[in-house]
Amino acid sequence: MEPSKTKLIGIIAIALIATGGTGAAILLNRQSESPNSSETSSTTGSNSNTGTSSNADTSGAYKDGDYTASGSYRTPGGIESVDVSLTLAGNAITDVEVAGSGSGDSARYQSMFREKIADIVVGKNIDEIDVSRVSGSSLTSTGFNEAIETIRQEAESAA
Questions:
Q1: What are phi and psi of 107, to 5 degrees?
Q2: Fewer CB within 10 Å of terminal CB in the chain, N or C?
């Protein structure tokens, strides 16, 4: 990499770290099925939010409709859960709501997660969703992803 590009990247990284902002998570879309396409697109925000991609088959056909599922995750205080309700249209998420059971710190993290998750997933193909951190909440993402997987299976079997 050219020294000027390295310097610019370093300055950007320092600025992101210094601001500690919370924005949309980095959500790396799963690779498309096209053998000639090696591109992945991303939605980027601040350094406090990250996502992951998967090599899962993205050929699912899903029935449009409203779906709800729960997902659980372990915290230092015990097991917590989130209820995810979403609307699918043309395999894309058009609306999402998350409700949690947390108390104390868990409730705070779930609230931060709820405030940003729609910005991250609405408009995305459900096969592209695999969130790992939203607004500093990495554990809530585990329950959210579990619920998304349940919804995928339900919507696929209904198609």
A1: -65, -40
A2: N
Domain residues of the chain, as ranges? 3-158
CA dist., res. 13 & res. 87, Å (int): 36
pLDDT, one tens digit per residue, over 56-87 is 444 579 999 999 999 999 999 899 999 999 99
> Which whole number is the average pLDDT over 109-132?
96
Determine the Cα–Cα distance for residues 32 and 40; give it in Å rounded to an integer: 8
The architecture in CATH of the region 3-158 reads 2-Layer Sandwich (3.30)
Phi-psi region of 78 (alpha: psi -120 to 50; beta: other; left: phi over 0): left
